[in-house]
Amino acid sequence: MTAAQAHSSLHHLLYLFAFLSFMKQGNSLDNDTLIELKNSLINGDKLTTWDPLTAPCDGNEPIWEGILCANDTIWGIRLEGKELGGNIDTEILTKLPFLITISFQNNSLEGQFPEFKRLHRLRSIFLTTNKFSKTIPMDAFNGMKRLKKVYLANNDFEGQIPSSLTTLPKLRDLMLENNRFEGAIPKFVSNYLTNVNFANNNLSGHVPQRLQKFPKSQFSGNGEFCGPSFGECKAMITTAMIIMVALVLVAALVAISAAICILQQSSSSSKDDLQVLPYKTGVSSNHDQMEQGVGKTTVTANNVDLSLTLNFLKDDTEKFDLADLLKASAVILGGGVFGSSYKTTITRQKVLVVKRYNQMNNVTEDEFFKHMRRLGKVDHPNLAPVIAFYYRKEEKLFVTNYFENISLAVHLHGSRSATRKLDWPTRLKIVKGIARGLLHLYDKLPSLIAPHGHLKSSNVLLNRDFESLLTDYSLAPITNQEHARDVMIAYKSPEYKNQGRITKKTDVWSLGVLILEIMTGKFPANTLHQSKGGDVEFIKFVDSMLKEEVTIDMFDKEIGAFNEHNEEEMLKLLNIGLSCCEPDVEKRWDIREVVDRIEKVKETSENDDNKES
Q: Between the chain's N and C termini, which has fewer beta carbons within 10 Å?
């Protein structure tokens, strides 16, 4: 053996000795690291097999629960359904050098997204069904080139999908459903994507080509998507473009300046006596601003001055300028029977919805402004208020607050998950909120025959606490009657079908239909979308419910467990819904009796509670 060979052999022996020493030392360090992890978690003491006096692994067999082993080395942690709380301290996990997979599914972990980018070796992250919230940093997955599986479903994440996810070259599974992600779905570089789910978020826009091969159900419960499988794509929009749609088109470029002057003069002469509150945003010349002092702002969109007056209905509303709206980005939320809705983000704290209504051109300007004044006086925690509006003969814009938890219809009929089910207490809470909001409309708008007129599950928003917020209410007086008859729920009632009229009890009938939908999970055909023959299907839904025997079998299977403690109350609410649907108007209860009966429904039977005690 030459000297060089001897030196080489000695080098390898020393390396092997060092490696074996490292492995032996590493095994003892693993014990300390895992105990440190256990102590950092809420309810970590439930990991009773994690005993510092024993080794976590015996060869390939785990001794401690939730540990994955190979040759006495820990390569994975799988702590699922252990009622663990707190957050994952990635500083601790960096001490496990061979860790490649972690799963904390079905726990109660919360807070910021853990700094997994410190664990470059990770191939799988499973965090489905926890309580994580807030925005995931854009660089959260930087450098994780081996990562293949990311499961973040059923949490409360918000903001945009982090861009660092899109750069992962080996990404195969991406499960993001049932969160509050917003914006567009980005393009992914990975050629290995085989399993994705974006359902039930606040996403919208163009679906990248590589993702269009997946079923549409994996994109449901979001805003409006476009692409070959989703419908025609429109150009990227801004709020300025939305507003421009509502303005008068100028016939010739040379006439723009003159046209705007005419519009401004007309606006200042005709609107002064109709303005709802003494606050306007709009455009004017510098001369106008100097003379009038306040309330005017000059803005430009596409190099054309736009004349637009926003009328605010609430004097305690934080005012925003037209310039703020024009600069804000907008996302299409969807199109309803009245027009399209757009989510508009002015600042992180101020997110609004701009709704376009194009079936209100038969009402006079004076009538429209008077009715909007009446709506401005309506104030109730179960009613989503109109903040401001814009009037133009052919088209109207309504500005409302944005609520994060989407509509009742999506929760009832969209893609469901274990954490988003509507149990019995939640459904009762929702019904009571709807009833209270409806009664307030009756009290504040006594001159309206049907104070709501369009009560359906897609017009009930739910906030983060699942409180009901009624929308699209009291529109009948300012909606073109032919359009109202075609689309509004009040005009689907038995009294309109049989006698061509609506009454003070028509909203009660709509409430009854909604209660049946909430309790049974059945879907009235045209409450969400207008379709040919919708009236017939709608009546069939109500008639079938009235003819069926009222039993517990009618309840939605997603409502959760029911027993002798709540069965009586659930049946009580279902019967109230059926009574509201009484075809004979004279026999149908009035709104006050209905609300009184609903308020008396409890989560559990008081008699059964007394028996328990």
A: C
